Amino acid sequence: MVTKQYSELNSDHYSALHKGVQLVLSPDLEGQAQRIWISSGVTRAATMSGHRSYAPNAFIPQPPWRLPNSSEYQLLCADNSQANPLGWQLGSFIGVCRIPDPVLAPLITILEKLEPATLSRQHFLERLQSPENKQAILPIIQFLHRYFLFPHQPKLLGFYLKQPGLETSTATLAQLQPPGQAIDPDQVVYVGMHLDSWELAPVEQRHRSRNRLCINLGREDRFFLFINLTLKDLSDALNPLEVKNDPNGVRLGELFMQRYPSYPVVKLKVAPGEAYIAPTDNLIHDASSIDKQQIDLTMTLLGYFGLPFVMNRRVLLDVVTGNVWSSS
Ligand SMILES: [Fe+2]
């Protein structure tokens, strides 16, 4: 009975974008106008999509995609011209920035020699382990210091290779394989729009989890997909009893998409040489290589990242006072 009442109250309320996760675009990016699109909602993925298997409860964006109107654009994008006294919101801001070509050049040269399209991911990663190749990563890490919210050591999650033409690109193995064994493509299952759980924090702590910086090392645009609501926003939209039974929030995304399939997914373009920063432990997301012709290649780090603009003064103050996470 509680579920029915709650659903009736909210179903129309979540058929259009709400103000939630905010997007911040670095001013030096090209092509600001044609950078975001919104879907018509989400739909359950067919268990088999072409040659690909999806998990039984997977959701993917529902086309058609369209450009946001001006009020939707304002809901999605933070106003970078005004100082926000709360500073960069680790768990609810997404940024896009550009890594200069000379910084990326040594690594790109190595990657092109490795010809990733001809290698399995395992072989590709093995070859990338040489000291010379590791040296090529150092200038990138050095450059990224400007996006550290405070001095720390980010974790290099690694390099990810994805095939072109994928509506959503995150996959997992259907069953565990012995370490070192080559991945059998037939054993891969795509998960659809999902939540990361690198730190598996409870819902009320998710906004404090490390966020992710992901560089597009490919030659074509790629797309980051997300629902612009934090995990706390999702829990507020759902039946309190369901939330109570899921303290880490790992099923809230699926419940939300099941109950509110009209709520749009945002598609954010990340051009070659650009990086996105996103709290992937705190929002439902995936990436897409649907319009690509070539292999999708990214480098991903986990840390505390943000774009340097006026809003970060509060974060710096908090670091000095030892009160880093006072704001949500
Ligand atoms: Fe993810």
What does the model show?
The protein is an alpha+beta fold and 328 residues long. The chain has one domain (2-321). The chain is built from nine helices and 16 strands. It has helices at residues 2-10, 70-76, 101-114, 121-127, 131-144, 231-237, 240-244, 252-259, 313-321; strands at residues 22-25, 36-38, 42-44, 48-49, 52-54, 59-61, 93-98, 155-162, 171-173, 188-190, 211-216, 222-230, 266-270, 274-278, 283-288, 296-303. The strands form four sheets. A six-stranded mixed sheet has the order 1-7-14-11-16-8, with no helix packed on it. It has a four-stranded antiparallel sheet with strand order 2-13-12-15. Residues 170, 194, 196, 280, 285 line the site of fe (ii) ion.
Defining traits:
328 residues, alpha+beta, 9 helices, binds fe (ii) ion
Helix content: 10-25%
**Biggest sheet, spatial arrangement of strands:** 1-7-14-11-16-8
**Helix count, DSSP H or I runs of 4 or more residues:** 9
Low-confidence runs of at least 5 consecutive residues: 310-328
Distance between the termini: 33 Å
* Shape by Cα distribution: globular
Secondary-structure class:
alpha+beta
Task: Name the average pLDDT.
Answer: 83
User: Helices and strands, in N-to-C order?
Assistant: HEEEEEEHEHHHEEEEEHHHEEEEH
Ligands and ions found: fe (ii) ion
Find the count of extended strands (DSSP E, 2+ residues): 16
User: Strand-residue fraction?
Assistant: 15-25%
Main sheet overview? 6 strands, mixed
